[in-house]
Amino acid sequence: MKNTKHILILTIICLLFINNSKAQRIKGEIIAGVNTTQVDGDEIYGYYKWGFNVGASAIYAFDKHWSLGVETIFTQKGSYQNEPNSPDSLQKPYYNLRLNYAEVPVLLMYEDKKTITIGAGFAWGRLVSVTEIEHGIQTASTTLYGPYKRDDFSVLVDLRFRLYKGLKLNFRYEYSMVPIRHRYYDVVDASGVHSTWDRYQYNSMLTLRLLYIFNEPREINKDNNQE
């Protein structure tokens, strides 16, 4: 919670700085979208876990095409799979993991003709809550005692399209650079065969968002009108 408060304070400072009339190179964004995620290494495959991705961003344009963006967002990750071979599998998930993060992505972005923006960067996420259900039973996973690490460091790539004036459509892919968990499996199958193995687990996330720029510099608007 202490780190979460620091992130919220950083967001407020960024927004106050954006509203400073002298900060003509600073743009602000409101962010809202959805994630579809999986956890690599959990023996479950597919981007079946959905979650929210919301927050705000401050963007410093230090060149006509280049800018640096810092976001503060709430993002939901995890993994999901229904009970296999069950006639009512939609009502009986046998694995359901929800990881809620307060996250700070930092991106270097290039904008081409004020229409398409491509970017890449890194993100630090702080785990604020976790819920894990296996075969209908909730596990003892917590943010304080694990087994999931409280910090998630990830790399990301980002693509943005201008829809209308300050409104943009955003696609993003993000992947953990370090494991979020080291899990040991101990399984006895239906024939009585005993197997053990271990896996390192990583968050993998696809994101679709809408971005609205609310403090775009005037000179950019003039260029748009001339074009």
SSE topology:
Blueprint: H1 2-18, E1 26-40, E2 49-61, E3 66-82, E4 93-112, E5 116-134, E6 137-138, E7 151-164, E8 167-176, E9 181-188, E10 194-213, H2 218-226
Question: Which class best fits the helix and strand makeup?
Answer: mainly beta
**Tally of individual helices:** 2
Unreliable residue runs: 220-227
Oligomer: single chain
Q: Name the strands of the widest sheet in spatial order.
A: 1-2-3-4-5-7-8-10
CATH class categorisation: Mainly Beta
Shape: elongated
Residue fraction in strands: over 45%
Order of helices and strands: HEEEEEEEEEEH
- Number of DSSP E strands: 10
Helix content: 10-25%
Compute the gyration radius: what is it? 21 Å
First-residue to last-residue Cα separation: 48 Å
Mean pLDDT: 85
Protein architecture, described:
- There is one protein chain.
- With 227 residues, this protein is mostly beta strands.
- The chain has one domain: Porin (Beta Barrel).
- Helix content is 11%, strand content 61%.
- It contains 2 helices and 10 strands; from the N terminus they run H-E-E-E-E-E-E-E-E-E-E-H.
- The chain has helices at 2-18, 218-226; strands at residues 26-40, 49-61, 66-82, 93-112, 116-134, 137-138, 151-164, 167-176, 181-188, 194-213.
- An 8-stranded antiparallel barrel has the order 1-2-3-4-5-7-8-10.
- It is elongated, with a radius of gyration of 21 Å.
- Residues 220-227 have low confidence and may be disordered.
